[in-house]
Write a structure and sequence with these properties.
Elements: E1 11-18, H1 21-31, H2 35-38, H3 40-45, H4 55-71, E2 76-86, E3 96-108, E4 115-125, E5 131-142
Antiparallel strand pairs: 1-3, 2-5, 3-4, 4-5
Length: about 140
């Protein structure tokens, strides 16, 4: 999407994407090797009563959905960061995740640079409509001219 296509209150949806045990284990072994992400047998006895995906894996899934659905072909080039990130419920192998992104603010930069600033909330929901990710991001777009 082009920056000019965004407006406050807009809701963008994407997905679903299936989460596999292989992906959970692979991501965790490479980037977040805590036992409840990497050891299915031990995870069964743990506080989550089963293997769960890393929260960072959950963020990566949301990023992929945003990149494929919204940012592909756009003028997006960076993000200065997140206002918050929360994982209200764990993601488990077999979950089917869908994204809902809500546009909170759209404005031109006051710095004099030709930048568009988009503030938006990304939420991932599983097949039971339980929220598994809630974050607020700021994205920068290079404006024409």
């Amino acid at each position: 999407m082009k920056f000019a296509e965004f407006h406050v209150g807009q809701v963008i949806e994407a997905g679903p994407v299936q989460v596999t045990e292989e992906e959970v284990l692979s991501f965790a072994r490479a980037w977040d090797p805590q036992w409840f992400h990497t050891d299915p047998a031990a995870a069964e006895e743990g506080p989550f009563q089963g293997l769960i995906a890393s929260g960072w894996h959950t963020c990566a899934i949301a990023m992929r959905l945003i990149a494929d659905t919204v940012l592909a072909g756009s003028e997006s080039f960076a993000s200065p960061g997140l206002n918050y990130v929360k994982w209200p419920k764990p993601v488990r192998p077999g979950d089917s995740l869908r994204l809902k992104a809500e546009v909170l603010a759209v404005r031109a930069s006051r710095s004099g640079k030709a930048l568009g600033i988009l503030e938006w909330r990304w939420m991932l929901f599983n097949q039971n409509d339980a929220m598994v990710l809630d974050l607020e991001a700021t994205s920068l777009f290079k404006l024409p001219g």
